[in-house]
Design a protein that fits this description.
The protein is an alpha/beta fold and 389 residues long. The protein is built from 18 helices and eleven strands. It has a six-stranded parallel β-sheet with strand order 5-2-1-6-7-8, with helices on both faces. A three-stranded mixed β-sheet has the order 4-3-9. Strands 10-11 form a two-stranded parallel sheet. Helix 4 links the parallel strand 6 and strand 7.
């Protein structure tokens, strides 16, 4: 049986990656620092994943165990004879797992292991492969750099599966229990691999990986953001409630179509391809079983208003390809009004706007010029707060 080293035993690790690999006859060795989760995985050697669809079903994920990420020698020993590695720890944590990965690469180099090992990077980070490689390279002595370049692949991914945060009541009953939607496709960047690409269920190696990245960010993530910021106005708690609102679903679909039309032109796709993707997403957004909340999807509006992120980035893409982003700019205006008191970034955004005005945010956070058409569209809609919906 082949072996995957999975950094991160959280929602993506347990609720997505481990399923694909165990169903492809891999043993999965989780690397985490949560002792309770580590102990539970080593005791049970399995856990339950509930698939949330038209008819829910429970499956058992077996052939799993765990090691403590703070024990670098143990982790490196596991990496030494691993067939593949994956990370799903979060952007803010990814740097902390690099010492163990670097040590594992040293072990493989010293033992003259010439079988390539690829790192599947499941992080919400643009240019993740380049960034992770630089982190690891900075920890290695010069004599190991040639080995790293030749035998270690850095493979970027697009994570599309939606996995809800479980309430504490469920965690208390079963710490390892996890739920996820049915969708389980994992696009990966073909060019990132070293050696043979492994045969893993639902893992699709893509030549044109940039398209999949942009489709996820500018249609999927955009759609979630539009639904969330408009849903907040209507005081909805859950995403499925917002998407059931005829006005919100109308604006959300139109916004996704605006960036979708741009992507269609950019990548020479058919309208049918984009329409099918958008319609499928809207059905998935309406899944009540996911229990996804408005405030979770709307959190950190400052980041979401960044110049290349889902809102501003998709609006600029639309304009570049001759599509006027009327509905995207409406969602941006709604994001600028987002002031949820338990979201520190929303509170900070509201204070900035109160002190310096909306133009300050668009100039300094979104990097838009005051005379740009997009700036004018956003401010016009922002000033008509009552007409957001």
């Amino acid at each position: 049986m082949k072996k995957l080293i999975q950094f991160g035993a959280g929602n993506i690790g347990r609720g997505f990656i481990a399923q694909l690999f165990t169903e492809s006859r891999y043993e999965v060795v989780f690397v985490d620092i949560d002792k309770k989760i580590i102990d539970a995985l080593n005791k049970e050697k399995k856990y339950t994943l509930e698939i949330l669809g038209k008819k829910n079903k429970k499956i058992s994920i077996t052939n799993v165990r765990a090691v403590n990420g703070t024990d670098i020698d143990v982790v490196a020993g596991e990496i030494q004879n691993a067939d593949i590695i994956a990370t799903a720890v979060g952007v803010n944590v990814i740097k902390s797992v690099c010492p163990a990965i670097a040590e594992g690469i040293r072990y493989r180099a010293e033992n003259k292991i010439e079988l390539p090992v690829n790192i599947i990077i499941c992080e919400n980070l643009l240019s993740a492969g380049k960034i992770l490689k630089e982190y690891i390279k900075s920890l290695l002595e010069k004599k190991y750099i040639g080995y790293l370049d030749k035998y270690v692949g850095f493979v970027e991914t697009v994570i599309g599966r939606m996995i809800p945060v479980l309430p504490d009541t469920i965690k208390k009953k079963d710490l390892l229990y996890v739920k996820a939607e049915e969708y389980s496709i994992l696009p990966v960047a073909k060019k990132g691999f070293k050696g043979e690409i492994p045969d893993v269920k639902n893992m699709i190696a893509c030549d044109n990986f940039k398209f999949y990245e942009e489709r996820k960010l500018f249609i999927h993530n955009l759609g979630h953001a539009v639904c969330a910021f408009l849903g907040y106005f209507k005081k909805y708690k859950y995403v499925w409630e917002a998407i059931a609102d005829k006005n919100i679903i109308s604006v959300t679909k139109k916004a996704m179509n605006e960036s979708g039309d741009a992507l269609r032109k950019k990548y020479n796709l058919t309208k049918k391809e984009i329409d099918e993707y958008i319609n499928d997403l809207l059905v998935r957004f309406s899944n009540k079983n996911l229990g996804d909340t408005i405030v979770r999807l709307a959190r950190d509006p400052i980041r979401k208003l960044g110049k290349n992120d889902r809102l501003i980035g998709s609006a600029k893409l639309a304009l570049k390809y001759g599509v006027k982003p009327e509905n995207i700019s409406l969602a941006i205006a709604a994001a600028l009004h987002y002031n949820y008191e338990k979201d520190e970034h929303a509170v900070k955004l509201a204070k900035i706007i109160k002190t310096y005005g909306v133009q300050y945010v668009l100039t300094n956070i979104s990097k838009l010029k005051s005379k740009e058409i997009l700036t004018k569209m956003i401010i016009e809609k922002y000033n008509k707060k009552g007409d957001v919906l």
